[in-house]
Amino acid sequence: MKPALQGVFVVEVDTPGGRLGGVASLGLNPTVSDTPDYKLEVHLFDFSGDLYGQRLTVRFLKKLRDEARYDDLATLVAQIERDAASAKTYLTSLQREQA
After folding, report:
1. Which residues contact 49 (CB under 8 A, 6 or more apart)?
2. Contacts from 16-25 at CB under 8 Å and sequence distance 24+?
3. For 10, which of 63, 71, 77, 91 is 20 to 30 Å away at the CA?
């Protein structure tokens, strides 16, 4: 089943330890996977630990871009770094607005 949203997003995630910001990819991961399965992958900023098996709430705050296929992993990693930087900038601007 195709999800209503696809792409790369700025997210907030409610964890057992509190709310954290991050960046998420929702889609097919075309650079590293040829399967037709949709996946949600979330990278949380300023977090280290294990959340496997935990129930989490993910809030999609802003779409950064559509999903894309890259020629190699180095290009993909560089784009992921840019996405993370954009997400951090957006989250910082939200914090300033709420202060």
Report:
1. 17
2. 16/54, 17/49, 20/44, 20/45, 20/46, 20/47, 21/45, 21/87, 21/88, 21/91, 22/47, 22/87, 23/64, 23/80, 23/83, 23/84, 23/86, 23/87, 24/58, 24/60, 25/67
3. 71
pLDDT in tens, 42-95: 999 999 999 999 999 999 999 999 998 899 999 999 999 999 999 999 999 988
The domain ranges of the chain are 7-98
Tokens at residue 74, please?
């180095």
Q: Is domain 7-98 annotated with CATH 2.40.30.30?
A: yes
In terms of Cβ atoms closer than 10 Å to its own Cβ (0-12, 13-18, 19+), residue 58 is: middle
